[in-house]
Amino acid sequence: MTDSNAVQTFEIDLPVTVYTRPLNEPAADWTEFDQGPGRFEIPAADEINLRAKNIDDDDLYTLVKAVGGLTSLTALNLSENRKITDLGLSRLAALPGLTRLNLSSCSISNQGLAHLTALKNLEHLDISYCNRITDEGLRFLKSLNRLAFLDIQRCVKTSHAGVKKIERRGLVIHR
Hints:
It contains five helices and ten strands. By secondary structure, it is of the alpha/beta class. It has a single domain (7-174), classed as Alpha-Beta Horseshoe (Leucine-rich repeat, LRR (right-handed beta-alpha superhelix)). Strands 3-2-5-6-7-8-9-10 form an eight-stranded mixed β-sheet, with no helix packed on it. Strands 1-4 form a two-stranded antiparallel ribbon. The termini are far apart.
């Protein structure tokens, strides 16, 4: 039984939006909880989805340090943060509970995707519009056994043959 007064707390000096939904209701819609920077106290019974805007690799490191202890952080949206590179992705290993990750329009390459292999719970990955990713990078994603959805729309350096090499039952690939 969960203590109805229990909260998860973190503090961050970066522009973030926090979304929540009941932890045991994965079909429920995310609702906006709060925006920051600031101090956040989130009910322990809620799952957390963070959206960060206008950040770079150093900011991502700060963010990961601030939220690394949140057991119910399952989704992270970093889309359109063009100053996030492969180095920034190396820091995401400290968030093993992530099931959803949006990296669309970030400045990542094949080497960055290698860092994602540490995220064994990842089910949904969006790397659309990451135009430096090639078939070589896609191969790293093959080890993500729980991955059910992969968005590679506008990854112009990936080929049909490269996608074929990672296809498997239970994985939807959006091109």
